[in-house]
């Protein structure tokens, strides 16, 4: 398989797994809008989606998505060994590995993303509230990943990088 074809498969899989877990681009766009509209009063959902799509095109972001969702799925099925099974099931606050995965996404567009990520992680607006509800499945990694994608897209927007790789 060519490297280009493999890259296409990885991105499509990451996007598909987000969708399969109930996360749509529009949901993430709502988060970007929430974070940035006070700074960009003319901000549109199309601009938010454009920046999200640029973030999702990054291989390191795709890898984080696939890794985090895979761990959530394994935990949901009870296929991890203890004590990690219980730690991920409970989304223990001191675990922190889920945030480390998220920070790898945030860091793609610089340190401004840390502020956006910290804020949105505490507020839990929109889809993040849904993902944090344990009755909706195990999303220990996914909630942080989605918040990080929104924070990275917001950082990209703040850097004025709409047309920059």
UniProtKB/TrEMBL annotation:
Record's signal peptide:
none
- Kindly state a single biological-process term from the GO annotations of this entry: lipid metabolic process
Q: Any idea which GO molecular function terms this record carries?
A: phosphatidylglycerophosphatase activity
- Extract the InterPro entries matched here: PgpA-like_sf, Put_PGPase, YutG/PgpA
Ranges of residues in domain YutG/PgpA:
27-159
Q: Return the Pfam families for the record.
A: PgpA
Protein name per Swiss-Prot or TrEMBL: Phosphatidylglycerophosphatase A
């Amino acid at each position: 398989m060519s490297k280009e074809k493999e890259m296409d498969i990885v991105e499509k899989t990451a996007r598909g797994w987000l969708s399969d877990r109930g996360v749509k681009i529009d949901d993430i766009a709502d988060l970007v809008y929430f974070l940035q509209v006070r700074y960009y009063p003319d901000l549109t959902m199309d601009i938010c989606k454009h920046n999200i799509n640029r973030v999702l095109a990054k291989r390191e972001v795709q890898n984080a998505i696939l890794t985090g969702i895979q761990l959530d799925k394994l935990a949901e099925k009870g296929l991890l060994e203890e004590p990690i099974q219980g730690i991920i099931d409970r989304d223990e606050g001191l675990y922190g590995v889920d945030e480390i995965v998220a920070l790898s996404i945030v860091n793609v567009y610089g340190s401004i993303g840390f502020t956006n990520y910290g804020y949105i992680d505490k507020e839990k607006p929109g889809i993040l509230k849904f993902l944090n509800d344990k009755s909706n499945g195990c999303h220990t990694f996914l909630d942080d990943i989605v918040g990080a994608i929104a924070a990275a897209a917001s950082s990209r927007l703040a850097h004025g990088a709409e047309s920059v790789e």
